[in-house]
Amino acid sequence: MLPPVGEALNPLPGVYASMRGFVVPAVSMDVATAGLLVIALALALAAAGWAAARRGWLSPLTAPAILTVGIAGLWLADAKFSVDWPTFTGSNFKGGKDLTPELSTILIGLTIYTTGFVAEIVRGGVLSVGRGQWDAGHSLGLPRGKILRLIIIPQMLRVIVPPLNSQYINVVKNSTLAIAVGYPDFLAVMNTIISKSSHSIEGVFIILGVYLALNLSLSSAANWYNRRIAIVER
Fold it and tell me: Which residues pair with 144 in a beta bridge?
């Protein structure tokens, strides 16, 4: 339903959508720059975690501070990176990063589908916190934002983390639907290898191993966080 490439939609600067898929700007950097960026962000996150542990809550200025530290670290290190903007030349776009129609379809489809479930989980978590908690926050003179951040969300997380874990695992499983739109995802590639090599047992074990590792990793991370925020009775 998208227009031809010569009449591509331009919803955002540098972003074009046509029947050939999406074209977005591409950021390129060398290995040293990427390493410096990771180190800077890791140090900023560690500092934010230390500050949150001392105060008992996370400041709303944490995200801008992390971004500022990362940019300052790259500037001080004279990091080299560039942005490749797509341009329409001849009969197609050159530069940027191409997102094929198959990848765009599965990405948009899974995002919209999963967003509905996640929204309901979060809505149920908010409603699970009694109205009295809001009234108690208002009685202390706290603004609505602080009530939500300091009172509602900590209690809400204990309710929504387990179902969110299941939903994220379902996203990994539902990614196999990419084969329905012709996207060569991991499952489609392994099926092609199995059909050409006849090593079906080995191929199936590889598929099981990859999906099992992904799901166990997500489950372990969510269970660790769930234990961290759980109420410990004395």
Answer: none
Domain ranges of the chain: 100-234
Q: Residues with Cβ < 8 Å from 222, sequence gap 6 or more?
A: 161, 162, 164, 165, 168
Q: Under a CB-based contact definition with an 8 Å cutoff, are residues 108 and 11 in contact?
A: no
Tokens (6 digits) for 139:
């009685």
Report the C-alpha gap between 228 and 160 in whole angstroms.
14
Considering the domain delimited by 100-234, tell me its CATH architecture: Orthogonal Bundle (1.10)
pLDDT at 69: 67
Strand extents, DSSP E, 127-215: none
- Statement: the pTM of the whole predicted model exceeds 0.85: no
Residues 83/27, Cβ–Cβ less than 8 Å: yes
Does the pLDDT value for residue 120 go beyond 90? yes
